[in-house]
From TrEMBL:
Organism field: Pseudomonas fluorescens
Domain FAD-binding PCMH-type: 192-365
CDD domains associated with the record: fer2
Molecular-function GO terms, alphabetical: metal ion binding; oxidoreductase activity
Alphabetical list of SMART domains matching this protein: CO_deh_flav_C
Record PROSITE patterns: 2FE2S_FER_1, 2FE2S_FER_2, FAD_PCMH
Key words of the record: FAD, Flavoprotein, Iron, Metal-binding, Oxidoreductase
Name the record gives this protein: Xanthine dehydrogenase small subunit
NCBIfam families cross-referenced by the UniProt entry: xanthine_xdhA
InterPro entries recorded: 2Fe-2S-bd (IPR002888), 2Fe-2S-bd_dom_sf (IPR036884), 2Fe-2S_ferredoxin-like_sf (IPR036010), 2Fe-2S_ferredoxin-type (IPR001041), 2Fe2S_fd_BS (IPR006058), Ald_Oxase/xanthine_DH-like (IPR016208), Beta-grasp_dom_sf (IPR012675), CO_DH_flav_C (IPR005107)
The 2Fe-2S ferredoxin-type domain, residue ranges: 1-90
Amino acid sequence: MIQFLLNQELRSEHALDPNLTVLNYLREHVGKSGTKEGCASGDCGACTVVVGELQTDDHGREHIRYRSLNSCLTFVSSLHGKQLISVEDLKHKGELHSVQKAMVECHGSQCGFCTPGFVMSLFALQKNSDTPDSAKAHEALAGNLCRCTGYRPLLAAAEQSCCAKQPDQFDAREADTIARLKAIVPTDIGELNSGDKRCLVPLTVADLADLYDAYPQARLLAGGTDLALEVTQFHRTLPVMIYVGNVAEMKRIDSFDDRIEIGAATSLSDCYEALNAEYPDFGELLHRFASLQIRNQGTLGGNIGNASPIGDSPPLLIALGAQIVLCKGETRRTLNLEDYFIDYRVTARQESEFIEKIIVPRASAEQLFRAYKVSKRLDDDISAVCAAFNLRIENGVISDARVAFGGMAAIPKRAAACEAALIGQPFNNAVIERACAALAEDFTPLSDFRASKEYRLLSAQNLLRKYFIELQTPHIETRVTAYV
């Protein structure tokens, strides 16, 4: 059984299809049809809901963290121990919520199909913002698409809802909601079971290891932003899943003198602060990683584990010399991330083995790390090419080089010939040009609807040139956010 709050209503579910998304649960099982399906792939934001989760701050104070999610990509099992809020829950005692009023007064809706998703994104923005902030408003709404209104009135609604922020029914009930969430904190393995399909929800790494050993055919479910597409887009059935989002040990971020250890189930939003503090380019790239809804849900371990050749984080982590800890039963092994990827969607992971955490070296003054993403649009898009450069230069000579790319091969990988052309050489234009030519030895990219092979190779070479120019003239640095 799993338990969660549907706004303030306690729901206990057991005999549900684990392949059921939160979107279809709301619409088909509880009669809340305000949440819409637009794309069923997490691109449009029409299905946005907000999930509240019990948190404790550094001072030991308990509070509820509200985050926007795409309900079309969220399986019901991931709600275990949390609160689900949909657009129907905002109106209170016959009065519209302040974010709904802002949408009306700023003329933020026309046909209205996308409106519930915008309202819920604004609600989450208001809950997480004390003052109007244009950058935060753009970030909050980047995962919501509108075909007819135009974004000026929507941004005006965001500004008004944060300016006119007033206590609402959720604030008034916070103490009671905290008490109710504490009452349903999971204490044992949860399960959804429809007879022929099941999803298990462990709470510890040990339980996860035991379950995965017992069900090696199971699919591991973290954020589900990629896995759910098999259900929503390809109409496949997932007979057995194991949801890792309630394993607290795998959601920790621990900092040491020489490294940061990030639990594989840590959301990309939670990774941001730690990675941005060490490597600002990593933080900038995370701002361009899909949308806020996806980052709130997707995990760093999942982005690695699905082994996509165009995943945004692996090239950066490889260039930084990151490692992963793989767990199977009581056995653990540490593997250089670059050795994890073998071929297209083929990895070094053994049966019943899972990624427990990612180890990222701390930054040093000698490192010259930069990352770049080339895509068709700035926000909410997949890379055509993703590049990461990490050089050490001593007395004008390149003493070490780690260069990694995504989108250039069947796997994210280092550019060995390019690195060889750089190491031991002076850091000058002639050497960079030879290294650019060497990239043609490292990669034979494919052509697809994102980019031609010629465009990919030329882009990779130009990104290396860009890296060189920026380090020579840092005052013109544009970095990852400005390169499209």
